[in-house]
Design a protein that fits this description.
Layout: E1 16-17, E2 29-30, E3 33-37, E4 41-45, E5 54-59, E6 63-70, E7 73-78, E8 84-88, E9 92-93, E10 101-103, E11 107-111, E12 122-125, E13 129-130, E14 132-135, E15 139-142, E16 147-149, E17 153-155, H1 163-168, E18 180-181, E19 184-185, H2 187-197, H3 206-212, E20 215-217, E21 230-233, E22 236-240, E23 245-250, E24 255-260, H4 261-268, E25 277-280
Parallel strand pairs: 1-2
Antiparallel strand pairs: 3-6, 3-9, 4-5, 6-7, 7-8, 10-13, 10-17, 11-12, 11-16, 14-15, 15-16, 18-19, 20-25, 21-22, 21-25, 22-23, 23-24
C-alpha cells in the first residue's frame, strides 16, 4: 500500500476516507459529511482528548469533511489545507453558511448590536469567514444578526498584496504551538496565515511549505536574500523582511520577533542545525 502522510490523508486502521480505498488498509471506508466551524477558533487535536497536542487551528466559517462523529469529537479533514485531526463536536455544525467576507485585520469583534459599547463582544481572528447580509460604512450585519466593524472586513475575492506586511502585523504575538491567530501562533502558522490573507495557498507545516512554496534558491547564498524570501531549518521557518532581517514566531523569544538573520542563524544552529532551504515567490 502507498506510504501516505497521515496529516493530509484521513485513514486509521478502523476507518478511512472512501477516496483512499485501494491505497490504504482499513476496516471501513466512508464518504464523509460536510461541516463548518461555528466558533471563532477551533483547536484540531492529534487525538480525541481535550489535552491532546494541538496540531493546528480551524477558524470560523472554515469547512471540513467529517468522517466520524463519536461522543464529543469529530474526526475530519479541513478543506483549506487538507489537515486531518480531531475537533470538538461543539465547535462544528452540519448547517453550512455562505461566507461572503473575511476578517482582514489580526483581530476584530462581533457585537450583538451595531454599537461598539454593546456587550458581550466576541473576538474573531484574521481569515475568519463571515456571511454578511447588509452593510453600511460603520457596521456589517451577519446572517446570525451579529455585527462586525465594516472596515475590518474584505470580500472573499479581495486579497492583500504584501504577505510580509501582513505577517508584520503579528509582531510580538505570543508563540503558541499549532496556533495561527493573534492570540498565539507558531512559525508555519504565521506563514500560512499571512499567505492566506493574500489569496495564496500554503500547506500547514514547515516541511510541506519547504517543498511546495515558491521556488528553491541556493542554501549557501544568504547574502542575496530579499523581502519575502522564506528561510527554512528542519522544523522551523522565518520570513525575510529585508536583505538582513528575519521575522519569525519562535520558542526562544516565545513570540514573533524581527532580528538580524545572522544572529538567528548562529543561535538556531544549536537547536535545528543549519539552514536547509530558501524559497522565493
Amino acid at each position: 500500500m502507498a506510504d501516505l502522510d497521515s496529516r493530509l490523508h484521513a485513514f486509521r486502521p478502523d476507518l478511512a476516507d472512501v477516496k483512499l480505498q485501494g491505497r490504504v488498509d482499513a476496516k471501513k471506508f466512508v464518504e464523509g459529511v460536510a461541516m463548518e466551524v461555528i466558533v471563532p477558533i477551533a483547536t484540531m487535536h492529534r487525538e480525541a482528548l481535550p489535552n491532546a497536542m494541538q496540531t493546528t487551528q480551524a477558524l470560523l466559517g472554515e469547512r471540513l469533511v467529517a468522517f466520524e462523529i463519536a461522543g464529543d469529537w469529530v474526526w475530519g479533514q479541513l478543506k483549506r489545507d487538507g489537515y486531518v485531526g480531531y475537533i470538538a463536536k461543539s465547535a462544528v455544525s452540519a448547517d453550512l453558511s455562505n461566507p461572503t467576507h473575511r476578517v482582514s485585520v489580526p483581530a476584530t469583534f462581533l457585537y450583538p448590536l451595531p454599537d461598539i459599547k454593546s456587550q458581550p463582544p466576541v473576538s474573531l481572528p484574521m481569515n475568519a469567514q463571515l456571511e454578511i447580509v447588509e452593510s453600511d460604512e460603520k457596521f456589517s450585519k451577519l446572517a446570525n444578526d451579529r455585527y462586525a466593524f465594516t472596515k475590518h472586513l474584505r470580500p472573499l475575492n479581495v486579497t492583500e498584496s504584501d504577505f510580509v506586511g501582513v505577517a508584520e502585523e503579528f509582531l510580538h504575538v505570543p508563540y503558541y504551538w499549532g496556533g495561527k491567530t493573534s492570540h498565539g501562533l507558531d512559525c508555519s502558522g504565521l506563514v500560512q496565515t499571512a499567505l492566506e490573507a493574500c489569496g495564496v495557498f500554503s500547506p500547514r507545516d514547515t516541511d510541506m511549505q519547504e517543498k511546495q512554496l515558491g521556488h528553491n534558491l541556493l542554501v549557501n547564498d544568504l547574502d542575496g536574500l530579499r523581502r519575502g524570501d522564506l528561510v527554512f531549518w528542519k522544523g522551523h521557518v522565518g520570513i525575510m523582511v529585508d536583505q538582513k532581517t528575519l521575522l519569525h514566531a519562535n520558542g526562544y523569544h516565545m513570540m514573533t520577533v524581527k532580528e538580524p538573520l545572522s544572529e538567528a542563524v548562529a543561535r538556531i544552529a544549536s537547536v535545528y542545525g543549519q539552514v536547509t532551504g530558501i524559497r522565493r515567490f
